[in-house]
Amino acid sequence: MDRLLVLVRHGQSEWNLKNLFTGWRDVGLTDQGVIEAKAAGQKLKGENLTFGTCFTSALVRAQRTLDLMLEELGQTGLPITRDEALNERDYGDLSGLNKDDARAKWGEEQVHIWRRSYATQPPGGESLRDTGARVWPYYIHRIQPHVMRGEGVLIAAHGNSLRALIMALDGLTPDEVVKLELPTGLPILYRLNEDTSVAERRELAV
Ligand SMILES: O=C(O)[C@@H](CO)OP(=O)(O)O
């Protein structure tokens, strides 16, 4: 049985372009983001992948990315579940601030810790651990059963909600996850074993 799972970070958003902390703020894709989402869909099509169901967050940049990929794939009409559990990490008080301004104010190292560490919360926001505490149970209870039935699952979500998921799937340590960076629009393909462990992991460079 093909226990297929594909993860895709949304295409470039308006606030990625403006270099602003985004988190739960609901911003759209840029033209470049649309191009990236379509390219991801073409890549999945080129790999002859067939999906049975899709998941995305409650935020439009991920939802639009999913819609665009499905159009390119020619697989519109699939069930789509949209859930806050897959939302980006909540950046709290940093949301809407410019990342370079934040570095000037709090220092390079502190901002890097807020952005990439496992356990440190940005002021008023979620650590990656907090994000994982909602993403991982959602994956186990709602998403993984579809994968295990061989339905083929496509997820469009966010840099940090996917880092949290990948940390668990790949068994990364808190030190290792600091170095994990997810480009926009890059599909990451997993195939699972019968015992739910990872049989295959491949980045589908577009
Ligand atoms: O602003 C955000 O919400 C995220 C993703 O764009 O940024 P960062 O790379 O700092 O985690």
UniProtKB/TrEMBL annotation:
Transmembrane spans: none
Work out whether the entry's keyword set contains Glycoprotein.
no
Residues under site feature: Transition state stabilizer: 158
Q: Please name the GO terms of the biological process aspect recorded for this protein, alphabetically.
A: gluconeogenesis; glycolytic process
The metabolic or biological pathway listed in the UniProt record of this protein is: Carbohydrate degradation; glycolysis; pyruvate from D-glyceraldehyde 3-phosphate: step 3/5
Under the heading SUPFAM superfamilies, the entry gives: Phosphoglycerate mutase-like
Catalytic residues as annotated in Swiss-Prot or TrEMBL: 10 (tele-phosphohistidine intermediate), 88 (proton donor/acceptor)
Q: Name one GO molecular function term.
A: phosphoglycerate mutase activity
Enzyme category, top tier:
isomerase
Q: Which UniProt keywords apply?
A: Gluconeogenesis, Glycolysis, Isomerase
> PROSITE patterns, from UniProt?
PG_MUTASE (PS00175)
Q: Name one Pfam family in it.
A: His_Phos_1
Q: Where does substrate bind?
A: 9-16, 22-23, 61, 88-91, 99, 115-116, 159-160
Q: Which reaction does it catalyse?
A: (2R)-2-phosphoglycerate = (2R)-3-phosphoglycerate
Give the EC number.
5.4.2.11
Biological role: Catalyzes the interconversion of 2-phosphoglycerate and 3-phosphoglycerate.
Q: Which family does it belong to?
A: Belongs to the phosphoglycerate mutase family. BPG-dependent PGAM subfamily.
Query: Subunit info?
Result: Homodimer.
Protein's UniProt name: 2,3-bisphosphoglycerate-dependent phosphoglycerate mutase
Q: Which organism is it from?
A: Bauldia litoralis
